[in-house]
């Protein structure tokens, strides 16, 4: 009887689709490139949502956001839905299931305690020895505060990474040192060369635990979601990674000027609201800094932001190399499906924007997507539009594991020629409490076009990515594109009729 394959999902946070080496932008990611060479790269993979929590809920469940209820950060999925997701499906199939790193499958900064481990106000109920289960995964090692826009709080407001960082009672000191800006300083407040020594940062912590998991694998096949929190902002990296790219060598945003003309109404309203004072409190804005601000995106700032962002990704890539080596040494590499992707992208200066929001330009919408493993063809690039909502269906199909019906479809049919696809979907209920505007924002990515449309006002944007890859000319109201607009509206309306009520807002993030 053939040995059951392992499944290893490796994800990053806020990594653009063009920021892997094989995309040709100049970033050095030899291990991500190795996965691409040994398998399939999907060049038009999109996130179903541009915010962390909702995007991750879709990866977990295989459902679009309006069908799992997490339509934005700060809304918690019902736990029975989570148990039918990636971890639960493979646990039921007899796999040893693990989650290592940043989950953000529940809200962190909440108004009241939610009773979930990722909630700042509830983490103390779990303690240093708790290892799950959580969201269907039987063994977990998580981070409560994966990014440095938050303050440090001592135990018991901690999860596994924070307890580890607090060795010798020096957690606060180390967390603060990560914010130390090494000289020479950068030209933007949101990025810096970190003063904390590299071994204390999150990427090596995640890499170490993943290598240990592989080395100590028992008789059961593994299903693990390994989730790196980089390159999410604020953009900081320690030596040597912060110095890996020279300021002058990186390829920065081609069109870094803010261009709000001939854009949908919500672009201006969102940008103008972001300029207002902090709304979401000190929990999320350590040091009284509004980390949601873009700041001045001058040439020097863009070069520093980009080179540190690249360094963060290269640091993760190094850990992926260690993971691949551990699989090889355990004689498990050829029996493991490795999927690499990100939850969503990052503007990184495109159109004068930084971070993320309801403007779904390609840098934010498109994510890297790679898969290798038994029976997966090598060195293939597939240009068909797909989404990370397909991860569960693909992993279950390739492993021969029974899974509930989802919105996702297995990628196998795309490389063996038995299936084709015309488009992938994203959806985002934007609410003014958190993001300045109220919208029912639906997006479709077809082979040639990207269209985003607010169903509340029937306004939108449509770009011809063949003739206009930088999305400079909005064709939504162009009479010459009326048929294309209608066709893409039909694609949006084709989503399954299985929406559920939006999950209550329990917090900000």
Structure description:
With 509 residues, the chain is of the alpha/beta class. It contains 15 helices and 16 strands. It has helices at residues 30-37, 52-61, 65-68, 79-83, 86-92, 160-165, 171-178, 202-215, 265-274, 299-329, 362-365, 391-399, 412-415, 432-435, 482-493, and strands at 6-12, 40-42, 45-46, 96-101, 139-142, 191-194, 222-227, 235-238, 336-342, 369-372, 380-382, 386-387, 423-430, 439-446, 449-454, 459-464. The chain has an eight-stranded mixed beta sheet with strand order 5-4-7-1-9-10-2-11, sandwiched between helices. A four-stranded antiparallel beta sheet has the order 13-14-15-16. Strand 14 and strand 15 (449-454) form a beta hairpin. Helix 8 runs parallel beside helix 10 (299-329). The longest helix is centred in the middle third of the chain and has 31 residues, at 299-329. It is globular and about 65 Å long. The chain starts with 5 loop residues before the first strand and ends in a 16-residue tail after the last helix. The model has no long low-confidence stretch (mean pLDDT 96).
């Amino acid at each position: 009887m053939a040995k059951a394959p392992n499944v290893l999902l490796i994800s990053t946070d806020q990594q653009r689709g063009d920021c892997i080496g094989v995309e040709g932008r100049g970033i050095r990611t030899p291990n991500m490139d190795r996965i691409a060479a040994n398998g399939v790269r999907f060049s038009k993979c999109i996130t179903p949502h541009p915010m962390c929590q909702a995007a991750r809920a879709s990866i977990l469940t295989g459902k679009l956001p309006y069908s799992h209820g997490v339509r934005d950060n700060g809304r918690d999925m019902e736990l029975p839905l989570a148990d039918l997701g990636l971890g639960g499906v493979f646990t039921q199939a007899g796999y040893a299931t693990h989650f290592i790193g940043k989950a953000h499958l529940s809200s962190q900064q909440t108004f009241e305690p939610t009773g979930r481990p990722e909630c700042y106000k509830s983490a103390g109920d779990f303690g240093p020895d708790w290892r799950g289960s959580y969201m269907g995964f039987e063994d977990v090692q998580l981070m409560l505060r994966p990014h440095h826009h938050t303050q440090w709080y001592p135990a018991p407001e901690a999860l596994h990474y924070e307890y580890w960082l607090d060795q010798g009672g020096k957690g606060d000191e180390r967390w603060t040192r990560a914010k130390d800006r090494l000289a020479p300083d950068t030209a933007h407040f949101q990025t810096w060369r970190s003063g904390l020594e590299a071994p204390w940062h999150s990427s090596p912590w995640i890499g170490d635990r993943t290598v240990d998991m592989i080395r100590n694998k028992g008789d059961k096949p593994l299903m693990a979601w390994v989730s790196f929190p980089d390159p999410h902002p604020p953009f900081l990296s320690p030596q040597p990674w912060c110095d890996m790219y020279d300021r002058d060598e990186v390829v920065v945003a081609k069109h870094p000027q803010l261009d709000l003309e001939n854009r949908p109404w919500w672009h201006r309203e969102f940008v103008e609201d972001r300029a207002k004072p902090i709304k979401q409190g000190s929990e999320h804005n350590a040091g009284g800094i509004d980390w949601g601000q873009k700041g001045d995106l001058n040439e020097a700032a863009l070069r520093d932001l980009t080179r540190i962002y690249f360094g963060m990704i290269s640091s993760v890539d190094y850990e992926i190399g260690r993971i691949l080596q551990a699989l090889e040494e355990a004689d498990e590499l050829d029996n493991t499906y490795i999927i690499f992707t990100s939850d969503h992208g990052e503007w990184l200066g495109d159109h004068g924007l930084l971070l993320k929001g309801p403007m779904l330009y390609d840098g934010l919408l498109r994510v890297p997507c790679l898969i290798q493993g038994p029976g997966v063809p090598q060195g293939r690039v597939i240009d068909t539009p797909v989404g990370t909502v397909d991860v569960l269906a693909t992993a279950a199909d390739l492993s021969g594991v029974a899974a509930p019906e989802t919105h996702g479809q297995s990628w196998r049919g795309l490389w063996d020629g038995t299936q084709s696809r015309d488009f992938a979907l994203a959806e985002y209920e934007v609410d003014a409490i958190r993001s300045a505007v109220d919208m029912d924002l639906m997006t479709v990515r077809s082979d040639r076009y990207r269209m985003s449309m607010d169903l509340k006002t029937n306004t939108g944007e449509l770009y011809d990515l063949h003739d206009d890859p930088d999305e400079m000319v909005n064709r939504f109201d162009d009479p010459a594109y009326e048929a294309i607009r209608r066709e893409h509206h039909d694609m949006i309306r084709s989503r399954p009729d299985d929406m559920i009520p939006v999950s209550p807002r329990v917090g900000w993030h």
